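Reader question, answered in our methods column.
A reader sent in the components of a multi-part assembly and asked whether the whole thing could be modeled at once rather than chain by chain. We filled in our standard form and ran it. Here is what they sent:
COMPLEX SIZE: two components
ENTRIES:
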Amino acid sequence: MSELDTPLLARSAPSSFRFDAALVSVGRRAGAIASLLALLVAWEAASRSGIVTPFLLPPLSAVLNRVAEDAMSGELALNLGQTLYRAIAGFAIAGAAGVVIGILMTRRPWVRWFFDPIVSVGFPMPKIAFLPIFMLWLGLYDVSKISMAVFNAIFPVIAATMAAAEGVDRHLLWSARSLGANERQLLREIILPAALPQILTGLQVALPISMIVMIVTEMLMGGQGLGGAMIAASRFADSPGVFAGIVEIAVAGLCLVKGIAVLRRHLLAWHQEAQEPTTV
Amino acid sequence: MNAVAQILPRYVPLLLLAMAWEVVTRTGLVPTAALPPLDTVAAAWLDLAVGGDLWSNGVASISRGAAGLGLAICLGSLIGVLMAWYKPVRIAVNPTVQFFYPMPKSALIPVMVLWLGFGDASKVATIFIGCLLPITLSAFNGALGTEQVLIWSARSLGASRWRVLWEVVFPSALPELLSGIRTALALSFVLLVASELIVARRGLGYMIGWLGDGGAYDAMFAVVLTVALLGFLADRLYLMLTRRILAWRE
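And here is the structure of the entire assembly that came back:
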């Protein structure tokens, strides 16, 4: 009987396959969620079964409980707000200054002469090593933390802006000039829009850097913020607190990265890349 | 000789900055407590180098970084290529990789300290996990971009699946993989210095923190500049290596 049933069921499936693509994408998403869920279940199971002690890996439920407690007491909002405020402020300053320096480097030879070696040496340097110097000069509060984020995040923006502005199609520049555009119009109407995709890529590199650096500075300088809360929990051997910290930081990082990807899609709605499916 | 003559003028602005540093500290524009003059920094560096502190801590740091990054390169490129080659692996691993990729990796430091303590193991593990994701993802993307025609041709010429993997998929994933490793190299320095600054008993990052706490700012500046220079040199050496590895593509 069952052998008869199976083909019948298969035949009763919808015969129209216009939604094929939609079904595939839903299936893929379901697969992704299932695999993440499996990971979370494995976490809970491992810590409940006693393979690892709850100190080394507190059960997921305990960690989520802790996150909820932090959220209720307002501590999460406070720490998250502080971290995001500093990381985004540093990112914004680095973004604005980096684009200006990058554009100037392609437009003014002496700016390029001065900044080119600084960028080529400064970009690959582990700038996090300068943290104690920033603490010495600027103290332990927001100014030194934000400056540190700017110092780390500005190099990819400068490099991307410079490469982008260099790569603008010369024919576009020539046509605009021959139609009578002055320098400012050239910059606003031609160079910036043409360079925007690559500049945004630079910004997409800079944002996670700013976040990584902010977490480290908070861990070292203490004070509020997700990094500070996490290192404090680690000093008191409060392992649910440490894991709650990593969950909060991971989700915050994920949201920032997704946010800037959405921003990119909006800003580049006119660009041909918006017609292609994006993976980020 | 010719190469030096070509490269040197490019770095004149850096020399100017160094001279400006010396001038503002010597003339008292900036207090030497905040910025020790460059020549006292150089003298402090020599002291540390002769005393052996710089070497022992430098070796500790570099071996941690190399161990973490080396493990990440081996495992990351393997996972990445397998993700592109076998669908079950991709379905199982890809969502996790995509989810954790944007995580600020420095958040791993306290967790690794909790698991592995204050010694070498926690630093190596932090660097390993932090670098694993960018390398995996770049190997995956590189291997996905392999031209299907090449795979079919190799198969039709009788190559086994493993041989296709090794001789077709891996080489065509290489450029993207190598650029992912460059990102990971920079990240490994960041994680190394950060984890040593936060908790360590050895290493260059630990030295920076310890000298700074003791108020020996000239020595602290010397070590900071050493770390910065090491990071820069590592990147340049890696670029040279990359160019040599990819020479067959030209």
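What stands out: The radius of gyration of chain B is 22 Å. The CA atoms of residues 78 and 136 of chain B lie 8 Å apart.
Send us your own complexes using the same form.
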